[in-house]
Amino acid sequence: MAQKTALIVYAHQSPGSFNAAVRDVASQELTEQGYRVIVSDLYAMNFRANATQDDIIGDLKNPELFQYGEETMHAWMEGRLSDDIVAEQRKVEEAELIIFQFPLYWFSVPAIMKGWMDRVLAQGFAFSLEKMYNNGIFKDKKAMLSFTTGATQTMFQPDGINGDINITLWPLQNGTLHFCGFQVLAPQIFWSPAHCPPMVRTAMLEGWRGRLKGLLAEKPLTFAPCELFDLSFQGGFLLWPKVREERESQPYGITTGHHLGKLLPPDNQTRAQPRDENKPDCKN
């Protein structure tokens, strides 16, 4: 049996950070499970975050109006992307599991990690209009977010000052990972470790180690499958009318983003939901 590969895309400036400790636990545990673990340490690599025409080798298709997405798609098709992008894309291709490890910055990833997503997950390589969401290019791969917060868990509750963490996570987990087809595992959230005593931080790391032992057996998070939508410009990529009718009697929306004006399904972006055999399959 071929050895499996895990990629950890890591963004923290300090080797002495809690994020570094979390990364090391993942690397150690997955290695013990027989994985080949690759770490892209973005700050150590001095990975360039800004998406510019320097990412393209050779002439532009339209030098008069530079459109990054179009140009990088053609460059990917023709083997003309910059070496640093190609190196990261090869890691993605090899990995069955990708873990994004980072501190939460402004309710999102640090700029250097956002740059990795912008540049590496190029059109054609990571997605197309025909291959997206549950029909996406990476539908056979798993990905997850693992991050630390400065805020406490109560601050990210629906009645907390920061609002519902499920809403915070929707753009990253649905709009980036699931959009590219990944089976998105529930996030690993380390709440406010900087304000916790050493004993609690140690317990957090041991909890993470324990989860990693069964990580690949976990069900992915729930998203709305493409089959529920009219995937045409004429139909506006909207839910089929029949689907809307079927959902009228349901107390909750389909997902955090597809709420249909109803209550949000509880923990939709933080916990895998048990499957209901009587409902459409809404996983990745």
From TrEMBL:
Catalytic reactions on record: 1-(beta-D-ribofuranosyl)-1,4-dihydronicotinamide + a quinone + H(+) = beta-nicotinamide D-riboside + a quinol
Region of interest: Disordered: 254-284
UniProt GO cellular component terms: cytosol
Entries under Gene3D superfamilies matching the protein: 3.40.50.360
Cofactor requirement: FAD; Zn(2+)
SUPFAM superfamilies named among the record's database cross-references: Flavoproteins (SSF52218)
Keywords from the UniProt entry: Cytoplasm, FAD, Flavoprotein, Metal-binding, Oxidoreductase, Phosphoprotein, Zinc
E.C. no: 1.10.5.1
Highest taxon above the source species: Eukaryota
Start and end residues of each Flavodoxin-like fold domain: 5-191
Family: Belongs to the NAD(P)H dehydrogenase (quinone) family.
Function: The enzyme apparently serves as a quinone reductase in connection with conjugation reactions of hydroquinones involved in detoxification pathways as well as in biosynthetic processes such as the vitamin K-dependent gamma-carboxylation of glutamate residues in prothrombin synthesis.
Name of the protein this chain belongs to: Ribosyldihydronicotinamide dehydrogenase [quinone]
Organism: Seriola lalandi dorsalis
